[in-house]
Automatic annotation (TrEMBL), chain B:
<feature type="signal peptide">
    <location>
        <begin position="1"/>
        <end position="28"/>
    </location>
</feature>
<protein>
    <recommendedName>
        <fullName>Copper-binding protein MbnP-like domain-containing protein</fullName>
    </recommendedName>
</protein>
<feature type="domain" description="Copper-binding protein MbnP-like">
    <location>
        <begin position="33"/>
        <end position="232"/>
    </location>
</feature>
<keyword id="KW-0732">Signal</keyword>
<dbReference type="Pfam" id="PF20243">
    <property type="entry name" value="MbnP"/>
</dbReference>
<dbReference type="InterPro" id="IPR046863">
    <property type="entry name" value="MbnP-like_dom"/>
</dbReference>
Length: 352, 266
């Protein structure tokens, strides 16, 4: 009896050793970086609505995701070889262009709108400040080809993919036996961007009762004020109702950005812009579609006393929003709980 | 023994099958062939000639056309027995360009042999394709970009590009006109047309019929909806018809701008 147990034990030990050895060997041999244990499964966060993106139709694979990441950070896709997606969408700034009111693209051309964050796009039904794109796979098309952003050329991108050994390898791994095409390029970018989910802020953990996270009294009060006075537009756990509204900013006569009107040419859409999410808002300054405000204080002051009565002003803002100084402090405390350090530091989305 | 028996049974079936195929249907049309769709641009009763030719609308406006391009998509062919052959969607997007004769002949491969009596196609990119995102579009984006058919402010395409200059009895210095249709924030502006063939296109493994389609540029501006370029050039800076509700009117006109002139079955 004792002997057999011993034998079993030694067999067990041996098999553990073998497994470890195999694991070590394969971890050394197969991959050249520490990027092996990458989790690419999509799971809807328990406190999020249903996604709009069809994750099953374009399931992320490691090669597809890697390809998407490479594309996202590759300046060679632009006409000057410098401006990549990541140029204006920096991870630490919630994938916005840190500190830039509006962004500059190739040839130092200046855009007219503030960079939107890239996060939770798989839950949106339209994209861009004016909603001109309504499928996540196609979002990149605009930035890739816009003359003031990347000014890229798809034929040149295709020849780059066809000659660069790394791209050839990644396309082949991600889409075996299929031609390299703009379709596959967009699908890879779709795999990468659709997994950029920010759902692990302090607020989320509190809401899901995870890890014993609690909000301070001030943060909770801020959430209450927010729900009463802000959440009709910054609604739900995406913190946007995804509608388009004129929030009463001064109209810059040199730009005269007509907002959603550009896509519809409907008079009542003039000066309306997408209600942005407030997730990671502490990291994504400056604010508003034109990047007018550098601080949240300036934003809150705008809503209490700065609303301009311009064409199509949102009815809920005609009289401004009444906020006491205490309430402003509380709201800011609450907004601070929407910062998701796990997302902002997630190595899967980093350039290297 | 057993295997020999199996062999005999199999042979028996094979002979039966041969008998049936010989006797039951001696005119069976089988296999696959090709069909060519030729898109020939005209202006009213005349062939369209770019740049030099003056083309008069009924309202007195006179156009010189510099460019006419459009996306043909979602081709379906209907046989005389009513069955429909749908050309594979992902291969069914083409750009026809009046300035490039290579683009005007669309060759459809793998068409089941049969007698086809009508052809249906779309002008533009349909809502279903937009909903697919990137999937199924292959390199159409690159093709559209090379042909300047990207709708640059959104992730879409120009479905139709119709450009040139015009004069009217009151506008004597030629002004530019640009008619671009495409998906806007309010409408897809995709349209389909079904054309009856004057005689059936008989696709056989050895016969590739050619369907000669006239696309009438005149009807783009005066089909069911009469559109005046002068009225759309209020500022005198040219008629820029590229958005809003008027694209719906242009789209309706476009859906009725095509007809089949004749079919070659040789």
């Amino acid at each position: 009896m004792i002997k057999t147990d011993k034998m079993r034990l030694s067999k067990k030990i041996a098999s553990i050793f073998i497994a470890t050895a195999v694991g070590l060997l394969s971890s050394c041999g197969s991959d050249d970086d520490s990027y092996t244990e990458i989790d690419l499964s999509f799971q809807r966060p328990a406190n999020f609505p249903a996604p709009t993106y069809d994750y099953a139709a374009n399931p992320a694979t490691r090669a597809g995701f890697e390809l998407g990441r490479k594309l996202f950070y590759d300046g060679r896709l632009s006409s000057d070889g410098v401006v990549s997606c990541g140029f204006c969408h920096e991870q630490a700034a919630a994938f916005t262009h840190h500190g830039h009111s509006v962004s500059h693209g190739v040839n130092e051309q200046i855009g007219t709108r503030n960079t939107m964050p890239i996060q939770n796009l798989g839950f949106y039904d339209s994209f861009m400040w004016d909603g001109s794109v309504d499928h996540l796979d196609l979002v990149a098309v605009v930035a890739l080809t816009s003359e003031i952003e990347m000014n890229g050329n798809f034929q040149q991108m295709l020849s780059l993919f066809g000659t660069d050994p790394e791209y050839k390898r990644l396309f082949e791994q991600a889409f075996p036996n299929e031609q390299i095409s703009t379709e596959k390029m967009l699908l890879a970018l779709g795999q990468f961007m659709s997994l950029m989910v920010s759902s692990n802020s302090k607020f989320d953990k509190w809401q899901r009762a995870e890890d014993g996270v609690t909000l301070t009294a001030e943060e909770e009060s801020g959430y209450e004020v927010f729900q009463q006075k802000c959440a009709s537009c910054h609604a739900g756990n995406l913190f946007t109702d995804q509608s388009f509204r004129n929030n009463g900013l001064v109209i810059n006569p040199f730009v005269n950005d007509l907002g959603k009107y550009r896509t519809t040419q409907i008079e009542t859409d003039k000066y309306k812009f997408k209600v942005p999410s407030l997730r990671n808002v502490m990291k994504s300054a400056p604010y508003m579609h034109d990047g007018k405000f550098r601080t949240l204080d300036a934003v809150l002051d705008h809503y209490t006393s700065g609303i301009q009565q311009t064409q199509n002003i949102d009815p809920s803002l005609i009289n401004g929003i009444q906020l006491s100084e205490t309430e402003k402090v509380q709201i800011k405390a609450f907004l601070n709980t929407l910062t998701d350090e796990e997302f902002l530091n997630d190595s899967r989305f980093a350039p290297f | 023994m057993k295997s020999l028996h199996k062999f005999r049974v199999a042979m028996g079936f094979a002979i039966l099958a041969l008998l049936f195929s010989c006797s039951s249907d001696d005119e069976a049309i089988t296999g696959q062939g090709k069909l060519n769709l030729e898109f020939d641009q005209v202006f009213g009763g005349a062939d369209l000639i770019l740049r030099t030719q003056a083309n008069a609308l009924s309202n007195g406006e006179v156009l010189k056309v510099d460019e006419l391009k459009y996306i043909v998509s979602n081709i379906r062919l209907t046989k005389s027995d009513g069955t429909v052959f749908t050309y594979p969607k992902s291969e069914s997007y083409f750009i026809v360009d009046e300035s490039d004769i290579q683009t005007q002949l669309l060759t459809l491969d793998g068409v089941p042999a049969g007698d086809y009596i009508s052809v249906t196609f779309g002008i533009g990119v349909d809502q279903e394709q937009f909903n697919l995102g990137a999937a199924g579009q292959g390199n159409f984006l690159a093709l559209a970009e090379a042909e300047s058919m990207m709708w640059s402010w959104s992730a879409g395409y120009k479905f139709l590009v119709y450009e040139g200059t015009f004069t009217t009895p009151t506008v004597t210095d030629a002004e530019t006109f640009m008619v671009h249709t495409g998906r806007t924030g309010i409408a897809y502006n995709y349209t389909e047309t079904t054309l009856t063939l004057p005689e059936a296109a008989a696709v056989r493994t050895s016969v590739t019929p050619q369907v000669h389609i006239f696309a009438d540029a005149k009807r783009i501006l005066e089909g069911p909806n009469a559109i005046s370029l002068e009225e759309n050039s209020a500022t005198g800076l040219g008629a820029m018809i590229m958005g809003g509700a008027i694209l719906g009117e242009v789209t309706t006109n476009v859906s009725q701008a095509f007809q089949v002139n004749h079919v070659h079955n040789d």
